[in-house]
Fold these 2 entries.
Entry 1:
Amino acid sequence: LIRHKYGIYYSEYDEETHKKYHKRQYIVNHIDQAVQEGWIRPYYQPVVWSDTKELCGCEALARWIDPKYGFLSPGDFIPILEEHRLIHKLDVAIFESVCKDLRSHMDSGKPFVPVSLNFSRLDFELMDAVTVLNDLVTKYNVPRDYIHVEVTESALTDNMDILKQSMDRFHELGFAIWLDDFGSGYSSLNVLKDYRFDVLKIDMKFLSSFDTNPKSKDIIKSVVDLAKKVGMKTLTEGVETKEQAEFLNVVGCGRLQGYLFGKPLPVADIDDGIETGKYTVSKAII
Ligand code: C2E
Ligand code: MG
Ligand code: MG
Ligand code: MG
């Protein structure tokens, strides 16, 4: 809305920009309420072994189910929460929900698998991320090998000291650390030398020209071999076709994640998938 000394010019009113601005403000103003009212929930995306296709884990991915805006995906709120340095509030809510879900599965005897959690690089600045996670798993009495920490490669470009210390502490406590989005843009191969990761998640961009660009297969195979040489396991993200899955199994990428095996789903739908035999759980405590 442009106010001019001769009046208000409605022609300058850009409805799209206006709506976007309001949604952005809404997210910032409602993060606390969203956490309290349970609008923020983890959805779980299956991770399978590439050889047997058995379910070996899940990644927790945040969804914001809003009374006004409906179903929101990370692209709608993560960049805004990071910009306003509020992302840790959402992350803590997701960590706690995951711990609760794991606890209730253990209590009821339902099968379950390890869950990986996404950490924003800002989590390491905005809170003592290691203590926060460790207190939650202690509170809910969740075994530490059932929680994996995902750090995205873009986190490694700043805050090196805090991040390195945090990673050492995670490892000492018994949490595995996964490097997310490897190869998506920021990483130099140095990060593989300077940090200790247990699993390297190969970014789905590597699969984007799988059928058309013959180099993409060679590159994926080389990354898997390199990871193996430096003592890391591999997972490829964004697997959508049987041909991709077969290739990744042949070159020795141990874990696969992607729409071919399942989209992120509410915990009850994962349980249904296990009950109906869609998924066989390969590491379960009953
Ligand atoms: P990410 O951690 O790399 O997660 C993988 C993303 O790829 C997810 O998007 C997932 O739904 C999507 N995906 C999985 N398989 C396929 C596939 O076969 N094809 C395609 N096209 N996409 C696939 P999502 O859930 O929208 O999350 C986007 C990003 O937002 C995540 O990328 C992660 O960086 C961030 N994120 C999600 N949840 C959280 C959270 O709780 N905390 C923080 N800090 N970041 C989160
Ligand atoms: Mg991730
Ligand atoms: Mg990723
Ligand atoms: Mg990604």
Entry 2:
Amino acid sequence: MVVERTFSIVKPDAVRRDLIGTIYQRFEAAGLKVVAAKMLHLDQAKAEGFYAEHEGREFYEPLVKFMTSGPIMVQVLEGENAIAKNREIMGKTNFEEAAPGTIRADFASSVRENCVHGSDSPESASREINYFFTPDEVCAR
Ligand code: DAT
Ligand code: MG
């Protein structure tokens, strides 16, 4: 088994609804250790850059507006198969298709307002971690 790091966001909807602790509990229960974390409020340029892969899609502009609508928690999670494991406990993008017991099935209120982000590949994990954290902000555990 390979110990990996992945990048995660608790999105503005979940922060507004005081779900930070509940979602962190899901990470820890799944064996994903928090090795870096901070709260911040994205500005438009930073949100656009983060979701650049979706530029031009019909949902891109409302997504950027939502992601800048309030503070978020960004974190690096570490564990065996962390990238796939985190995607598994998040559930599918569309909460109506997400498996019961996943974060999105339990807490998302729409396809857009779906509580969490998680990297989908080693390449995106690396890019996304470096987009928000300097190497010295990530702790060995
Ligand atoms: P994921 O967040 O599961 O990796 P994604 O990368 O395809 O999904 O899309 C990024 C975010 O954009 C997603 O979490 C919510 C929003 N989004 C995606 N498809 C959408 C749609 N059809 N309508 C509204 N928002 C959408
Ligand atoms: Mg994605």
